[in-house]
Design brief:
The protein is an alpha/beta fold and about 130 residues long. It is built from four helices and five strands, in the order E-E-H-E-H-E-H-E-H. Helix 1 runs parallel beside helix 2.
């Protein structure tokens, strides 16, 4: 039996894919989130889009979950994502993700924020 740890939402509004991660993630929840994101990206039929990744209440991931995310990001980096805005509540979480998921930083047009409103405004200016 697989039990997901971590809560999430994945929604598409126009050209903005909003992903919210909350809590501590294991490989099962991470796999589900990645599949939901892939489904939304595929539905765009290669149109440009932006990602608003809200990690304000994210608390971390297991090593296995980080590996799954990094592999998924390698795929995502080859898609038509033109900008990523990433929101963290604490620099510590950002530093951990930076070390565990280097593929996150291969996209040049990305910016990290501590404020959701600023992140949304920047992302809108990029699309």
């Amino acid at each position: 039996m697989t039990i997901e740890h971590g809560s999430y939402s994945v929604t598409l509004d126009g050209k903005v894919l909003s992903v919210t991660l909350s809590g501590m993630f294991n490989e099962f929840a991470t796999t589900t989130v990645c599949q939901k994101i892939k489904n939304q990206v595929d539905s765009l039929n290669k149109e440009n889009f932006g990602i608003l990744l809200n990690c304000a209440t994210y608390e971390g991931s297991t090593r296995e979950a980080h590996k799954i995310s990094n592999l998924f990001l390698l795929w995502l980096n080859k898609q038509t994502c033109s900008a990523r805005a990433i929101i963290y509540s604490q620099k510590l979480y950002f530093d951990i993700v930076k070390n565990e998921q280097p593929a996150l930083f291969e996209l040049l047009n990305r910016k990290e924020f501590y404020d959701l409103t600023e992140a949304k405004a920047w992302l809108a200016s990029q699309l």
